[in-house]
Specification:
This protein is of the alpha+beta class and 189 residues long. The protein has a domain of 116 residues: Alpha-Beta Plaits (2-Layer Sandwich), CATH 3.30.70.3270. 40% of the residues lie in helices and 15% in strands. The chain contains 7 helices and 8 strands; from the N terminus they run αβαββββαβαβαβαα. The strands form 3 sheets. It has a 3-stranded mixed beta sheet. Strand 3 and strand 4 form a beta hairpin. The longest helix is centred in the C-terminal third of the chain and has 31 residues. The relative contact order is 0.15. It binds iron/sulfur cluster (SF4) (2 copies). One iron/sulfur cluster binds next to helix 2.
C-alpha cells in the first residue's frame, strides 16, 4: 500500500513517545545536569596515568619510555624523563616521568597512547564535564591532574582493570620465582 512505510514509522514513533510516559526503559533522555547517567564501561574521553597504592607520585606506573609521546598522532603528549630511577612493581629500577603533560585541547581521544603503552600505565578516563575558559591551567594537564588511582580505574573500567591486575600479578609472581634460585644458595650458606 502506498505510504504504508510512513504510517508504520509514525506508529513506531507514537508508540515510543507515549510509551516513554509509562515504561522507564523507553526514556532515552535524562534531565541533565540534575540527573546524570553512569558512563558505559566502554566509554572513553581523555587519558589518565594510573598509580598504585597511596603514592600519587611514587606509585605511578609510567616508566617514561616515551613510546606514547612518539605514537600520539597529534603530538599532544610531552614527557621529561627523570635523571634517577625508582623501583617498579617487580622491584626493577626504572626511570619515571619528571614531567608528563597532555594538551587535552589537541587530544583526539584516539586511545593510541593506551594501546602502545607496554606498562599498563595510561588508560582512558570517562570524565566529560571539562569545559573551562582557562586555556593553560584548564587544558594543559600535568601529572597532578593526570594521576589517578588504580581504584579509579577499577571503578570506571572494572572488567579491563581486573584483567590488567591479573596480568601484572602473574608478571610479579614470575619475577619473584626467577629471583628465588639466585637467592637460595646465599640462604643455604
Ligand atoms: S588519546 Fe590519542 S590524541 Fe589523545 S593523548 Fe592519547 S594518543 Fe594522543
Ligand atoms: S605512559 Fe606508558 S608508553 Fe607512555 S611513557 Fe609512560 S610507560 Fe611509556
Amino acid at each position: 500500500m502506498l505510504g504504508e512505510g510512513i504510517v508504520r514509522g509514525l506508529a513506531e514513533t507514537a508508540r515510543n513517545f507515549f510509551g516513554s510516559f509509562a515504561e522507564k526503559e523507553r526514556l532515552t533522555t535524562v534531565q541533565f545536569p540534575e540527573e546524570r547517567r553512569v558512563p558505559f564501561e566502554a566509554a572513553r574521553n581523555f587519558p589518565f596515568l594510573v598509580y598504585d597504592g597511596d603514592g600519587k607520585e611514587s606509585g605511578l606506573r609510567c616508566v617514561a619510555c616515551l613510546i606514547c609521546e612518539k605514537e600520539c598522532p597529534p603530538r599532544c603528549i610531552h614527557i621529561d624523563k627523570s635523571k634517577d630511577k625508582k623501583p617498579d612493581f617487580v622491584g626493577k629500577a626504572q626511570f619515571y616521568p619528571a614531567a608528563f603533560t597532555i594538551d587535552v585541547s589537541v587530544c583526539m581521544s584516539c586511545q593510541i597512547c593506551v594501546e602502545v603503552c607496554p606498562f599498563e600505565a595510561i588508560k582512558m578516563d570517562t570524565a566529560f564535564e571539562l569545559s573551562t575558559d582557562d586555556r593553560f591551567a584548564g587544558l594543559l594537564w600535568g601529572k597532578d591532574r593526570l594521576a589517578k588511582s588504580n581504584e579509579h580505574y577499577h571503578a570506571i573500567h572494572p572488567t579491563e582493570a581486573a584483567e590488567v591486575d591479573e596480568r601484572r600479578g602473574q608478571e610479579k609472581a614470575a619475577a619473584e620465582a626467577k629471583a628465588k634460585p639466585a637467592a637460595q644458595p646465599a640462604e643455604a650458606r
